[in-house]
Write a structure and sequence with these properties.
The chain is an all-beta fold and 526 residues long. It folds into two domains: 285 residues, no CATH class; 156 residues, no CATH class. 1% of the residues lie in helices and 33% in strands. The protein contains one helix and 28 strands. Strands 2, 3, 4, 5, 6, 7, 9, 12, 13, 15, 18 and 19 form a twelve-stranded mixed beta sheet that branches. A hairpin with an 8-residue loop joins strand 21 and strand 22. The radius of gyration is 24 Å and the shape is elongated. 52% of the residues are buried. The N terminus is likely disordered.
Length: 526
């Protein structure tokens, strides 16, 4: 039996102290799991059903093997985690939501779920391009229309300031894209909830969208893109439909938002799907420790593993609702999912958005692994504080006597080519640095001199390297051995190496008076 969640609440352009108005309850848990309908090819009007009728694992699986998987398409934007609830729309009603694809000028910052109010420390990643050719997208929806008679209209808008006082300015950058004869309630799927991939390749509907709204990050809501969805097949109560809601709708009694937001279903589930709009938007090389790496954060199998993710640090957990018969109870405007900033309580949240994934033709050179274990006081996993609270800048190691930002470790190259190079920066200008590899990890962190490390297990001292201008490399031009060989992690072995660099920091006036400190950590799966 479906149980209604807290109502959609109107986002008023007023101070949080004023009362919020509510719409009727229209969010319900889906019955069972959405099923994957396959790929609809807009250019030919045909389907590649593939896994038609099979279940997906909500929140961990997106598409399956399809025509898109054979292209160079990669993920541009991903909001698919935790899709366990859906909406119910009325005839002629239009929802417009926001998202973001990052530009090369986008900042690198970590989403901190423990910053109060939740959402005040938003996450962002740097993009690898300033415009993206969108070749397809993935939708999740539920429809009560019998058979294959569901109609959907989707449009994309390059830049939108989602204050919701008015809709996005026409014409759209992409669409409107009219989709007909899509599945609803069938004998094999009585819930009518589906996930479907829309292939825009070889069609006039493919479009190019500037990153961050206008090709450059400007730290305002114009960095958002907008997308709208409506269901022309809705004619009355028996033909209702609506998009899936992704994010963290199972968090009414969870540990980070006790008593606020959505009701858990089942009540024992306390899992949050993180991120400013409810999704882990991460990438290999992100400075944010604790991220769940692709593909575990969304789709698997489609498109190619890896790719450029998106972020939605400006989504603000809201959407515009307009039109409809009857129209929204409080009129056209901005509504939220139960917990944007200022919604009340010590723990504002959770964060959600409508289910959407964008695919694009972009080739991004991904780092070989990812950074973790920062001594910045922001990483929720690292509970071992820097000694004397000498926290570094976000993504860095603990602060030093000569650099309050701390030191950093990243890497370049590829595992496949066995040419990975570790790169330590922001250490003392001259002296030595020592590269270390461990085969295990202590997520909470371990004290190491004036700093913190999570590298544990059997340790290998890789090399001692001289510092020049505060940086060093291993391997460098003087080395005749690769990182994989030196660290006993052969390419293709599946072994994970955890890396750390420590360096001298002897200063009698610096607290604590240890003689060395360390960088942030890096991990690579070989």
């Amino acid at each position: 039996m479906h149980r209604s969640l807290p109502a959609l609440a109107l986002c008023l352009a007023v101070t949080p102290a004023l009362a919020q108005r509510h719409e009727t309850d229209r969010f319900t848990p889906i019955s069972g799991e959405p099923q994957y309908a396959g790929v609809y090819h807009v250019a030919t009007g045909t389907w590649t059903h593939g896994a038609m009728g099979s279940s997906t694992s909500t929140g961990t699986v997106g598409g399956g093997v399809s025509g898109l998987a054979a292209t160079s398409s990669q993920i541009l934007y991903n909001c698919t985690s935790g899709a366990t609830f859906s909406t119910s729309m009325t005839p002629g009603e239009i929802f417009t939501a926001s998202g973001r694809v990052p530009s090369t000028s986008s900042p690198e910052s970590c989403w901190n779920p423990f910053s109060i109010p939740v959402g005040s420390a938003m996450g962002s990643v740097q993009g690898c391009a300033d415009s993206y050719a969108v070749e397809g997208f993935q939708l999740g929806y539920c429809s009560q229309v019998a058979g294959n008679a569901t109609a959907i209209q989707v449009a994309f808008y390059q830049s939108w300031n989602p204050v919701c006082s008015s809709g996005p300015i026409a014409p759209p950058t992409g669409g409107p894209i009219n989709l007909a004869a899509f599945p609803g309630v069938t004998a094999g799927n009585p819930s009518g909830c589906w996930i479907v991939d829309i292939d825009l390749t070889a069609s006039s509907q493919a479009f190019t969208m500037l990153a961050d709204g206008d090709g450059a990050y400007s730290a305002n809501t114009d960095d958002a893109f907008a997308w709208s969805i409506s269901f022309p097949s809705i004619l009355g109560p028996s033909t209702t439909a609506g998009p899936l809601i992704a994010g963290c709708p199972v968090d009414g009694t969870g540990p980070s938002h006790p008593g606020h937001g959505w009701i858990n279903d089942p009540p024992t589930v306390n899992v949050e799907h993180a991120g400013y709009d409810g999704t882990f938007f991460d990438r290999h090389g992100s400075p944010c420790a604790g991220n769940v790496e692709f593909p575990a954060n969304g789709a698997i199998g489609l498109p190619l593993p890896g790719g450029e993710p998106g972020t939605d640090m400006v989504g603000d957990d809201g959407f515009r609702d307009e039109g409809g018969t009857p129209p929204p109870a409080n009129g056209a405007g901005c509504y939220f999912f139960g917990g944007p900033l200022g919604s009340g309580g010590a723990f504002d949240g959770p964060y959600s958005n409508f289910y959407l994934e964008l695919y694009g033709a972009v080739v991004c050179t991904l780092p070989p692994g990812d950074e973790f274990c920062a001594g910045d006081g922001l990483d929720p996993l690292v509970t071992t504080a820097c000694p004397c609270a000498n926290f570094g800048f976000p993504g860095n190691g603990c602060a030093t006597s000569f650099n309050p930002g701390g030191a950093h470790l990243d890497a370049t190259g590829t595992v496949f080519n066995d040419d990975v190079v570790l790169h330590g920066t922001e250490m003392n200008s001259t002296g030595i640095s020592i590269y270390v590899k461990g085969d295990n990890v202590a997520p909470a962190g371990l004290l190491l001199g004036d700093g913190v490390t999570c590298v544990d297990g059997t340790l290998i001292r890789l090399r001692q390297k001289s510092l020049l201008g505060g940086e060093s490399f291993f391997p460098d031009s003087t080395d005749t051995i690769t990182l994989s060989v030196r660290g006993a992690t052969p390419v293709g072995s599946g072994l994970t190496g955890y890396y750390h660099v420590y360096y001298r920091n002897a200063a009698s006036s610096f607290c604590p008076p240890a003689t060395f400190n360390g960088t942030s950590n890096y991990r690579i799966t070989w």
